[in-house]
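Trying the structure run again after the queue cleared.
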Amino acid sequence: MGKYDALVELLMEAIKEGGDARKDVNFVPVGISNRHIHLSQKDLDILFGAGYQLTKIKDLSQPMQYACKETLTIGGPKGAIEKVRILGPVRSESQVEILQADCFKLGIIAPVRLSGDLQKTPGITLIGPKGSVFLSQGLMIAQRHIHMTLEDANQFGVTDGEQVSIQVGGLRGGTYSNVTIRANSTSALECHIDTEEANAMNLASTSRISILK
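Done. Tokens:
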């Protein structure tokens, strides 16, 4: 057996013994999100026409969530950003999640919030092919967070709503604090950060992170 064959055999044995890397109890998958929009059916009707239904193009990691073909332009006092992706399904209230750098282009200071926490957030204008909507609230920068099931939370020793830190490996790695645990019976295990945070530490969807208590 040559050196190459011996190396392959060793690697196969390691895979067999180690199993699926995603089953490692210290491994949390990473989901990286760009700016996006969640719409209510009421606002969807105004922007695209009465009774309009979103067009799914890709399932997301969280159950029942998906990226849509449809995009909108968002406008603020100083500027606009085109082709912002809509995520489905529709919600009871519309919200827009942007990046920190987008605030300068739009001319709006957006707070860091968890999805759904809309109180005292600024408004934004949405422009679609059939009309426009001014949201009186709902503009935010997404708070980094980790989705998980209640079983996952028990395994990691954390609780829903708890603030933890995460350790990122690699040459540009480091620690992010103020990461909120979002545990319920339906979520898939995944740490959500935005593209700016991911770029700062050279994170990709294949990166490995660990939770620090």
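The chain has five helices and 15 strands. Worth checking whether this holds up in the mutant runs.
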